[in-house]
Amino acid sequence: MYIFFVGIFIFNFYNMHKLLRLLLEKLDIGATLLLVTAMTLGSGTASYTLASSTSNFTQTINAGSLAVDIVDGSYESVTSPSVAMTSKTFGFSCQTSTGTLGTASEKIYIVNPDNGDDTWNVTLAASATTDVWNSAGTDFDFNDPTGSGCTDGTDDDSVGGQMTINPSAATLTPKSGCSNTGLSKGDSASFSDEVNSILLLGASESTGIDCYWDIKHGAKKQI
Questions:
Q1: For a pLDDT cut of 90, what percent of the chain falls above it?
Q2: CB atoms within 10 A of CB 179
Q3: Inter-axis angle of helices 2-26 and 29-42, to 10 degrees?
Q4: Nearest partner of 208 among 172, 184, 173, 183, judged by Cα
């Protein structure tokens, strides 16, 4: 291919040289200048850039991390979760009221993606050990075991009461394709000055990843 192009170039150059010499001999200055201009333009080069018809892009999607939330039936976060306790008739003796933590519209949601931890725990705790159940009527403590939760002890507040959580009564539901292998629900336990958090669910190394679970129907009791 290169020899062919070189041959054409030499042939054209030779013919142009003969034509220039002939024109110069006849002193046709105008034709000579026109020919020189044509040769100059003809010897120029042109470049073309063709765009690719295929667009390429890259994107990195991170798997995320282990997370726990309280969600509704559509898996949207519940801003202010609540638990309805059983009603009681007024009396002068200490009474116990029970409720269910986790319903169809409010359930604990645990997700463990690809890069999640192999072992993890989900616990329940108050935002502060000095918190109390606040109502328009009587307030109640949640971590005062004095008198089996019926009287106020030597803690920082002036009300009595103790809350017990029973995770063993909860229903644990994995997503499709996952299982409850390696998961263990916590035992029934009560809050106190020494117990600030209660284990709801624990995971071992055999627990699956890229999975999620729902926890519902966990019983709670307030004295």
A1: 18
A2: 13
A3: 170
A4: 183
